[in-house]
Design goal:
With 334 residues, the chain is an alpha+beta fold. The protein is 19% helix and 29% strand.
């Protein structure tokens, strides 16, 4: 197996609404609400879970087990030498059936020092259906003010601290570790992130969760808020984090390149992807994946597949839009 087509992998009963746009994208019947995330090619579990979130392969194995059993096949020797046996990537489809809470994610350094984990959580979004996103502080915020807003759950005041931007289909957004953000209602996106389920929730009122108990990564808000950036994000910096639709190798903002890569190809016409682990998502049309080794695969709109390093160079063809999600280059890791 060098390429495997993946079914939807939607953990149920999440704390926010959504899921219908994932069903429509994949051409599936509309299922119940609160399945707003599809964990694609995932070797990562939801926080506190032993298996929920892991992606199955067509032969019945979990991708995580297959990678662990033969990391050179899936990841390649250069990746394993640089990163070990982690894929260094988690890909999701996310359908915001309601605005998400104001939150942030820890950095690698915070995760190592305070949580005793290998990875933090940088993330980036490719917008499939646009709307409002909230990203970065409009001004410096004193630690005491932030603590007060969190403990008193002044949600309108928290949201008002953030820049608001309208994003369109094809735009890309990078969310650095520590930066406060929220995804607006009805935004549908493809998310690339480091393979960790770590969120510091500053807002939980009105959501189906107890942020006072579960929003601080188990270390208490006095410690968790150390991971949150309290400095203003300038308009100039914000402009480097949001970019319009583009085509080519790694269309994400430059600051994200040490964490993951996203190639976007329209009617790819023989474009080739270098050998390596990859998750392919077809945004629209039909795309052929022709590996150097193994059987070719045809994907239609809404389909997803995982590609192993053993596939060799991957040639793309067809008339559609291919989104190729990849871990960082071994020579460009943080």
């Amino acid at each position: 197996m060098t390429i495997a087509v993946l079914p939807a992998n939607q953990p149920p009963e999440r704390f926010y609404r959504g899921g219908a746009r994932i069903d429509a994208f994949r051409g599936s019947p509309t299922g119940p609400d609160r399945r707003p995330e599809d964990w694609v090619g995932s070797v990562t579990t939801l926080a506190g879970e032993s298996s929920l979130g892991l992606s199955p392969l067509p032969d019945g194995r979990l991708l995580a087990d297959a990678v662990a059993a033969d990391p050179i096949h899936w990841l390649g020797a250069e990746h394993v030498e640089a990163f070990g046996t982690s894929t260094r990537l988690l890909v999701k489809l996310l359908d915001a059936g309601q605005r998400l809470p104001v939150h942030a994610h820890p950095s690698d350094a915070f995760s190592r020092d305070r949580l005793h984990l290998d990875s933090g959580k940088a993330e980036a979004w490719y917008i499939l259906e646009g709307g409002e996103v909230h990203l970065g502080l409009t001004r410096d915020v004193a630690r005491g003010e932030l603590e007060h807003l969190v403990h008193t759950q002044q949600t309108d005041a928290l949201l008002a601290l953030l820049h608001v931007r309208e994003v369109q289909q094809g735009d890309v957004v990078y969310v650095p570790p520590g930066m406060l953000h929220a995804i607006g209602t009805d935004v549908f996106l493809l998310e690339l992130q480091q393979p960790a389920d770590l969120s510091i929730l500053l807002e939980w009122s009105g959501f189906e969760l107890d942020g006072a108990a579960d929003g601080h990564l188990g270390v208490g808000f006095d410690t968790a808020l150390d991971a949150v950036l309290s400095e203003q994000t300038s308009l100039a910096e914000l402009a480097t984090l949001i970019a319009p639709a583009a085509q080519g190798d790694n269309v994400l903002p430059a600051a994200s390149h040490p964490y993951f890569r996203l190639d976007r190809w329209v009617d790819p016409a023989g474009h080739e992807v270098e050998p390596g682990f990859a998750i392919v998502v077809v945004e629209r049309g039909g795309v052929h994946l022709v590996p150097e080794r193994g059987d070719a695969v045809h994907l239609t709109a809404g389909s997803t597949a995982v590609v192993s390093h053993a596939a060799g160079r991957l040639r793309l063809a067809g008339h559609g839009v291919a989104l190729v999600c990849r871990p960082p280059s071994p020579g460009n890791a943080p």
